[in-house]
């Protein structure tokens, strides 16, 4: 049943460009990129319970880095992007080791600060980032015989869509795998009760840094994809508001579930499009959404569907199985 | 001596939680800490399990100073802490909770063996394996917390208020299990508000007051001591 669902979802995403009007292909690419970043955030926030409010900043740092490496140093995308991802991983590890000593809302405030600092750097380090003017003429990944992945022409929008889709599926597959390992169990234990997790011998700090870095790496992948797809960057793309909307998107979709980020990202793109919302009004709508969801739908849309359809397990086949005793009987 | 604390003090930020704690637990001994709220009982357990570090003084476990060792290393050395509070991972199943207790083990066969051991002590858990721990009754949650602690077969089990919020009948049940573990020669350091019940099954006890050990002795003597009874046991 589950396998069929997954196959259907992948198949649907593969044929989607041929179903929807051509104009929407652009939205699809952006949704895919966004979804990679939110899937990353889900590891830190949804599964580990770290309120990281700087996901868009990591995405921005990567976008700028990859763009500048190709433009200023003339590196190929196929070299610049991996280099960027590794650099962001190291940066996030360093930041994580320092900031993850703080718990819950203290950590959130700290990442809020990081987010502001990143924006100020994008906006004011004019000699490098060109400040508010942003960066133009970022090139799409070039065809090259040196790098094995680069044989398809990624200046073609449809091809870029499949490129994003592959990386998105890989990201999601990674999270699915991760959550089945001991590491995944440790992350959830930390979210549930940090002190109790520590009492089981879980090295809390190490796993938190791991989750934070994983999350940042996915943001970085999304950032690289973003820069070379849109071909221009401005600081406004990576403000704290963007980080916050990723959090809200995750909560709306369902934090700590595999499908949550996908659902949230899709809604994030589709709903404003249908309602024809001015971007400025989006945050107002999000604010309202946020309040409603926190109060009435704490599990996000996925939690809501579970409540309606009565599937409370949501984990793997083993916990859905046999001996779930009725709750009432134990009282 | 399995573990001894020598003139330990410890702080939360600037607040001194422990002023001068000295105590010992011998191999196979069941020792109880009693005292009012805020006397430092839970903090003492945290210092022993390495979650908190002493500001001054020494903690010696199996002849070695533990100060430089991480909580994880201490668990590997056989000190398992069952903290107070909700005590279980509420949104995980009973089985997942027990497996969490065996986080440091990777041998699947050994984990199965330990699960069987836990089910011998707590048959009720076996029938609740796939139930979310948060939906268990208070008594079952307490048993699950202790059961999870047993997954690593500790040499020293630290129990922080396992009777909290339990009905008198369930208290008796949990106490009986603690006694049985004691008979199996597991060293146990018990923190309990229900001092009378705890003292009845303990070998020895320490009385804590504002971060100091003020009295200690055989549990039966403390139970019989009028002054201790009036001041700390309230009966």
Would you mind describing this structure in some detail?
The complex is a heterodimer of chains A (331) and B (235). With 331 residues, chain A is an all-alpha fold. Chain A has one domain (21-312). Helices cover 72% and strands 0% of the residues of chain A. Chain A contains 15 helices and no strands. Chain A has helices spanning 2-19, 24-47, 55-72, 77-99, 104-124, 126-129, 157-178, 182-192, 194-199, 204-230, 240-253, 259-275, 279-296, 300-309, 317-320. In chain A, helix 2 packs across helix 11 (240-253), helix 3 (55-72) runs antiparallel to helix 4 and helix 11 (240-253) packs across helix 13 (279-296). The model of chain A is unreliable at 311-331 (pLDDT under 50). Chain B has 235 residues and is α/β, with parallel strands linked by helices. Helix content of chain B is 39%, strand content 26%. Chain B has helices at residues 41-49, 71-76, 94-101, 108-121, 123-126, 138-150, 168-183, 195-201, 219-224, 226-233; strands at residues 3-12, 15-25, 30-35, 56-61, 64-65, 79-82, 156-160, 187-191, 204-209, 212-218. A six-stranded mixed beta sheet of chain B has the order 6-7-8-3-9-10, with helices on both faces. In chain B, strands 2-1-4-5 form a four-stranded antiparallel beta sheet, covered by helices on one side. In chain B, strand 1 (3-12) and strand 2 (15-25) form a beta hairpin. The longest helix of chain B is centred in the last third of the chain and has 16 residues, at 168-183. In chain B, 49% of the residues are buried. The mean pLDDT of chain B is 89. The chains are: A mainly alpha (331), B alpha/beta (235). At the A-B interface, helix 8 and helix 9 of A face helix 2, strand 6 and helix 3 of B.
């Amino acid at each position: 049943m589950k396998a069929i669902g997954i196959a259907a979802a992948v198949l649907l995403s593969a044929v989607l460009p041929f179903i929807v009007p051509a104009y929407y292909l652009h939205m699809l690419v952006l949704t895919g990129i966004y979804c990679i970043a939110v899937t990353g955030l889900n590891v830190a926030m949804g599964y580990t319970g770290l309120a990281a409010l700087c996901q868009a900043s990591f995405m921005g740092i990567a976008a700028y880095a990859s763009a500048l490496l190709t433009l200023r140093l003339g590196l190929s995308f196929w070299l610049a992007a991996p280099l960027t991802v590794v650099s962001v991983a190291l940066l996030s590890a360093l930041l994580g080791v320092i900031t993850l000593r703080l718990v819950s809302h203290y950590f959130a405030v700290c990442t809020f600060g990081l987010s502001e600092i990143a924006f100020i750097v994008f906006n004011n380090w004019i000699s490098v980032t060109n400040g508010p003017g942003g960066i133009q003429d970022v090139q799409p990944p070039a065809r090259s015989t040196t790098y094995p992945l680069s044989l398809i022409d990624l200046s073609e929008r449809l091809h870029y869509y499949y490129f994003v889709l592959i990386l998105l599926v890989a990201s999601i597959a990674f999270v699915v795998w991760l959550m089945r390992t001991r590491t995944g169990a440790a992350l959830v234990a930390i979210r549930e009760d940090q002190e109790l997790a520590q009492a089981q011998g879980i090295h809390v700090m190490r796993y938190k840094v791991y989750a934070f870095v994983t999350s940042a790496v996915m943001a970085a992948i999304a950032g690289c994809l973003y820069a070379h797809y849109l071909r221009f960057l401005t600081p406004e793309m990576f403000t704290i508001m963007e980080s916050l909307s990723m959090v809200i998107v995750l909560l709306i979709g369902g934090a700590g579930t595999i499908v949550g980020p996908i659902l949230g990202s899709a809604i994030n793109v589709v709903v404003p499009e249908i309602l024809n919302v001015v971007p400025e009004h989006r945050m107002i709508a999000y604010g309202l959404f946020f309040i409603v969801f926190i109060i009435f739908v704490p599990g996000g849309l996925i939690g809501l569907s579970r409540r309606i359809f009565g599937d409370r397990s949501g984990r793997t086949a083993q916990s859905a199985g046999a001996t779930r005793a009725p709750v009432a009987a134990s009282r | 001596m399995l573990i001894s604390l020598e003139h330990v003090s410890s702080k939360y930020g600037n607040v001194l939680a422990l002023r001068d704690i000295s105590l010992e637990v011998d191999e196979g001994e069941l020792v109880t800490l009693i005292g009012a709220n805020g006397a430092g009982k839970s903090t003492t357990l945290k210092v022993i399990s390495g979650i908190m570090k002493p500001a001054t003084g020494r903690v010696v476990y199996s002849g070695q100073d533990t100060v430089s060792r991480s909580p994880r290393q201490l668990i590997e050395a056989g000190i398992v802490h069952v903290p107070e509070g909700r005590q279980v991972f509420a949104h995980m199943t009973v089985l997942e909770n027990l497996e969490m207790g065996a986080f440091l083990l990777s041998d699947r066969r050994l984990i199965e063996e330990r699960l069987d051991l836990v089910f011998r002590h707590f048959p009720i858990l076996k029938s609740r394996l796939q139930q979310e721990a948060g939906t268990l009754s208070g008594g079952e949650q307490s048993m699950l917390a202790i059961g999870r602690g047993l997954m690593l077969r500790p040499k020293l089990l630290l129990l922080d208020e396992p009777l909290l919020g339990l009905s008198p009948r369930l208290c008796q049940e949990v106490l009986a299990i603690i006694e049985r573990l004691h008979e199996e020669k597991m060293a146990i350091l018990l923190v309990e508000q229900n001092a009378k019940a705890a003292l009845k099954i303990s070998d020895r006890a320490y009385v804590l007051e504002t971060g100091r050990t003020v009295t200690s002795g055989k549990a039966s003597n403390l139970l019989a001591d009028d002054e201790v009874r009036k001041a700390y046991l309230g009966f």
